[in-house]
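Reader question, answered in our methods column.
A reader sent in the components of a multi-part assembly and asked whether the whole thing could be modeled at once rather than chain by chain. We filled in our standard form and ran it. Here is what they sent:
COMPLEX SIZE: two components
ENTRIES:
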Amino acid sequence: MLKPLPETQEALDEYVSLAEPDLDVRIVELGRRAQEVVPEVVGLSLALVREGVTFTLVAPDGVVAVIDAAQYLDGGPCVEAVDDPPDPIETGIDDLLDEGRWALFAQVSAALGVASSLSFSLVDAGRVTGGINVYASTPGAFTGRHEALATALGASALDVVTDADLRFSTREEAVQAPVLLRALQQVDTAVGLLASRFGEDVGQARERLSGASVRAGVSEALVAKVLIQLQSG
Amino acid sequence: MSSDHPPPSGSDSGNVGTGPIRLLIADESELVVHGLKNMLLPFRDRVRIVDQVEHQDRAAELVLHDSFAATPDQFDEDKALARTGALVVYTWQLHPTLVRLALARGVRGCLSKQLSGAELVGALVRIRRGAVVVLDHGDPSWQHDEHSRLTPREAEVLALIARGLTNAEVAEEMCLSVNSVKSYIRSAYRKIDVDSRTQAVLWAIRHGYAATALPDAHPAGSRTPSHPVPPSTRPAEPGPEDGSDQRTVEGVRC
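And here is the structure of the entire assembly that came back:
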């Protein structure tokens, strides 16, 4: 059974949506369905475009845990992300290998990690709302199973991409999700405070916050954090 | 309330005190004061009742006062005390409309006189840590907010997220699971007809569930008042349809 990464659980705790009230249940169900169709599945990530966050499930005792151990030995991408959370990870697999910095991580990933992946887009009313990546421990695990998997996950089988993320990079994105959601919450809260303070609608208040962050040369999240601290006295 | 209350100390929500909470019981009958002292005796390591003539350094952090039973001439003093962040309404009359008005004035909590000692201490501990606590006892059917049909739990959650707390922080403050907090947030969203945190924060401030202390950008001729506008009283509405508003205070650990 696939389980949420700790950071994914933390992010799910902060995620509130009337349109998607049971995302935590849904994502675990997606993992269950994926393994039902492809038993070799060891990971699944769900990315939401609107929020810009990724949630990831992994097999608790599978190869992913070994990858984790390897990166802790050598200071891999997730370790760096936790040490310096505001900076998004934008490193590609080529960078990793070229730099040689994460050599151990890459070697272990190649030797024991994900051997195949399948990527779907989630489309709603003609717009891409998210994506699902599924990872398996054996090469070619998804061969001939695209349609069945797409059906099981509620995705389209027309635009699948095979083996596009053998590095399981969505795990790194998932590590950032709590920080990103917290920043979104702070911005949302600050916009509400500003709308009240200046008698504006939400859109105007959001522009006010955005303008202030541009003029000050700092992130919206930082401006929002300061506003919230001011409000709290 | 008499005018010679010592100024509360350590009442800033960002300045959490240590040791037992120094609690002042203001303008209460001898019966209530003695009863309360006895009730809190087992919790003397958590709460210490102070006398209003004590030295400033040991002055009260929190003040319990039955503001809803206050006479008109006590009203202004109550307002001033509320602004210090020390006032906790302790009353028999935990009526939703009164609670809402009290929260709009900046009180730190509204607690029923029917609470047990453990419940009261737990609530005071949470208040000292910065939470705004509304805690009633008895039949929940009369606790619903007349304005929006928010339950006290939903109202408290809204007030806390309007202060910038995360869901996890709200859960800790209210001694609830994160899933319960998310459930309260969603049910509150539905009742106040919003679908985002931004809108919920704005609604909470405009309806008196949360105060804002942002600097006034328009001191003269401001387009909006610098303090939340108390909502108008409306006829009582039926209670919420969901039965999810369970009291989950877990004793003094909260």
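What stands out: DSSP finds eight helices and six strands in chain B. Confidence is low (pLDDT under 50) at residues 1-15, 139-146, 216-253 of chain B.
Send us your own complexes using the same form.
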